[in-house]
Amino acid sequence: MELNDAQPLHSQADQESWASLLARMPELYRTLAKDPRSPQTVVVIPSLSFDARELQKITGVHHYEERMLVNLMLLRQPRTKLVYVTSQPIDPTIIDYYLAMLPGVPHAHARQRLVLLHCGDASAVPLSRKILGRPRLIERILSEVADKNRAHIACFNSSPWERALAVRLDLPLHSVDPALNYLGTKSGCRHVFRAAGVEMPDGFEDLLTPQDIASALAELRRRNPDLRRAVVKLNDGFSGEGNAIFKYAEAIGDGSQDLEKRILDVLPTALKYEAPIEHWASFSQKYSEMGGVVEAFVEGEEKVSPSVQCRVNAIGEPQVISTHDQVLGGPSGQVFLGCTFPAADEYRLAIQESGGKVAEELARRGVIGRFGIDYVSVKEGDAWRHYAIEVNLRKGGTTHPFLTLKFLTAGHYDLADGLFYAPSGRPKYYFATDTVQSERYRGLLPEDLVDIAVFHGLHFHGPTERGVVFHLIGALSEYGKLGLVAIGDNPQQARFLYKQTLQVLDGETSPHVEKTL
């Protein structure tokens, strides 16, 4: 099968096979919940199956397949086998880096239960589609699965390509059914918020045309004459880079006459895009293809952007599993840069409760898997007001940091206070980011990074339960970019470890400083 011939499901037989796979996942979940040491095979497909034009906005995006390497921690279970498939080979040093952190498992024992496969393909085609176009690679994957009744696929997000791959492999997909993906779009999540009784910004969803955008912007201004800004969002934008800001005073001045026409006339030049490479011609074309929303921009002197991470397990039980405060950047502060765990004391339990309502609604609609709910929160007097703005129906930027903490410490999240406790009884905190980047870091190899971290004592230390864990290491040499999770005993310590790491990297790459290597 050629790459261009790979297609999502169409035939009745494929649809029936997919339904059969959906029915298998609950029993597998019950088996593993009863005995986590039971034999199983996890096939990890870290495909970013999104619109390629949106992914192009992210520096070194093909290395984001490495974010799911945190799943190598599953090898701490002695009868678990992991098959990890990527577009291109992963540097062996990166694999060794993760395996060395496994608590209580010899490196050799874990390594013999890990199978690394790749497509040898650096193109922008989603990984799942690449695999579908390589029947011999599919045969290799299947040859590593001893018992299909004890195996499943783990993915970053589920699209028709992941569904088609699941059918080809005859393995269940532990993720949302792609038929429900609309619920994770900017339009779909507004329907979910409304049904869950969760407050959200005033706005309109299911829009397609410039006329739709102009009408929505005009109506928002009529409802609130003091509204200064509104946000125009692509339904399937990624990390906030599919958003654009409309400033009323700057674009159309004062007055309420002919609002729609005036806004429509200036739209091509008035929108300010979060992605530097975006422009009206491409934005309006994507908007007409995928649709979008228009929302009032939430203003406030004291404003934060927390998020709630939830999951619905394979037997349909919704759970809140963490809260975070997001670190945002970009021209108007809408691009995800990182996060701190947990969210602030003064509103953590409030957003946890709100996120639980959304999780219950999504579970009611048949969603399974991990997802995040983003908020914009504004302090009004002594109280916080929380506006739900987005559901990321996938493993997002807060997923791998939390899994890193959970796997490394074997601790638990306590719903009573929203804190994470290690077995020692100490609460743990972290600061995480995907966007550590500098031109000076270009050329650093994975082994250089590991050497620097060990020499300066940055590496995560199991007995103290604190230190730094790196990810996106493969992007370092070419792009000068990497991610990290800095874990500490309090928020200040986690932030200090992050800043110390930057200072060390800057020092080690300064042309005027003697190197430790």
In terms of topology, how is this protein built?
Blueprint: H1 12-34, E1 40-45, H2 52-55, E2 80-86, H3 92-99, H4 107-111, E3 114-118, H5 127-132, H6 135-143, E4 151-155, H7 160-169, H8 186-196, E5 203-207, H9 210-223, E6 229-234, E7 243-247, H10 248-252, H11 259-270, E8 272-273, H12 280-290, E9 292-296, E10 303-304, E11 306-312, E12 318-329, E13 335-341, H13 348-364, E14 369-380, E15 383-392, H14 399-409, E16 412-414, E17 419-421, E18 427-437, H15 446-455, E19 467-471, H16 476-479, E20 481-488, H17 491-508
Parallel strand pairs: 1-2, 1-4, 2-3
Antiparallel strand pairs: 5-9, 6-7, 6-9, 7-8, 10-14, 11-12, 11-14, 12-13, 13-18, 14-15, 16-17, 17-18, 18-20, 19-20
Textual characterization of the structure:
With 517 residues, the protein is of the alpha+beta class. It folds into four domains: 3-175, no CATH class; 202-296, Dna Ligase, domain 1; 300-418, D-amino Acid Aminotransferase, Chain A, domain 1, CATH 3.30.470.20; 426-517, 2-Layer Sandwich (Alpha-Beta Plaits), CATH 3.30.70. The chain is built from 17 helices and 20 strands. It is globular and about 75 Å long. 49% of the residues are buried. Mean pLDDT is 91; it is low at 1-6.
